[in-house]
Amino acid sequence: MNPELARILANPAIWRGGDCAAEPASIASGFAALDAVLPGGGWPRAALTEVLLEREGIGELRLTLPALARLQSEGRSIVWIAPPHRPYAPALVAAGIDLSRLIVVQRCHDRDALWACEQSLRAPECGAAFAWTDNRDERILRRLQVAAREGRTWGVLWRRPGQRASATVAPLRLSLASHEGRLAVHILKRRGAGLLQPVLLDLARERGAPLCPSPGVVPVAVDPRHAVDLPPSAIASARRVRARLRA
């Protein structure tokens, strides 16, 4: 190779298309095999991640808990918007999650959910914002990506089984499936070369209490005072959940 060309390519600011691009900031996932294939060696702190689920309850939330606990240890809160099931507080506490820094927004219209997601992504106090949505409006998704970048927040769009994904603006896209008792993580899109084989993670040793219990089990407390300027409908929903906890 020409020495001058070699010198240019050695510059860390130069990215080769076959390699993973460096992320300006990332947080370790807690799973070495996954970090090895993620640009920056972890979840992107200032970008959207889109996750497609083969089915629910295969360990998708458990995959994110180590990183969420690390973000909370930095003094930042995490927000879950319109999760399909009620989070199970004991399991979250056992995983190191501080419930006082977890905000759950439930039963709000999709418009309010996306608004809450954008505000959370922009808030400096928020380290991660998870949203369960089927919205495929490219304009809205681009707004969320910009909000994540400007707020330096890890944003995750969860696509439930049967939902068609089209969030092309998300620089990291994964699909999760169960494979012989392990979690198969398929890298659909990343800043760098594609990955043909999935990353197989054994979550058995992480197994504990279920994160989404059956009806009647006490869910995570929701305090509307900690909400990030939520619209009235979402605040009312949070208050209703809190009232049920006190009942």
Account of the protein in words:
- With 247 residues, the protein is of the alpha/beta class.
- It contains 7 helices and 10 strands.
- It has helices at 3-9, 32-35, 65-73, 89-94, 110-122, 138-151, 232-246; strands at residues 26-27, 43-44, 47-53, 77-81, 102-105, 126-132, 154-159, 172-179, 182-189, 199-201.
- The strands form 2 sheets. Strands 5-4-6-7-3-8-9-10 form an 8-stranded mixed sheet, sandwiched between helices.
- The longest helix is centred in the C-terminal third of the chain and has 15 residues, at 232-246.
Summarize the structure.
This protein is an alpha/beta fold. It contains 7 helices and 10 strands.
Attribute tags:
alpha/beta, 247 residues, 21% strand, Rossmann fold, two-stranded antiparallel sheet, single chain, 7 helices, 10 strands, eight-stranded mixed sheet, disordered C terminus
Number of extended strands: 10
List the uncertain runs. Answer: 206-210, 212-231, 237-247
Give the oligomeric state of the chains in this entry, treating copies of one chain as homo and distinct chains as hetero.
single chain
**Biggest sheet details:** 8 strands, mixed
What is the annotated CATH architecture?
Answer: 3-Layer(aba) Sandwich
Tell me the strand order in the biggest sheet: 5-4-6-7-3-8-9-10
Shape: globular
> What is the alpha-carbon Rg in Å?
19 Å
How many DSSP H or I helices? Answer: 7
* Secondary-structure element string: HEHEEHEHEHEHEEEEH
Strand residues, percent: 15-25%
Q: Any idea what the CATH superfamily is called?
A: P-loop containing nucleotide triphosphate hydrolases
The number of domains is: 1
Assign the CATH class: Alpha Beta
CATH fold description: Rossmann fold
Estimated structural class: alpha/beta
| Overall mean pLDDT | 79
Q: What's the end-to-end separation, in Å?
A: 73 Å
Helical residue percent band? 25-40%
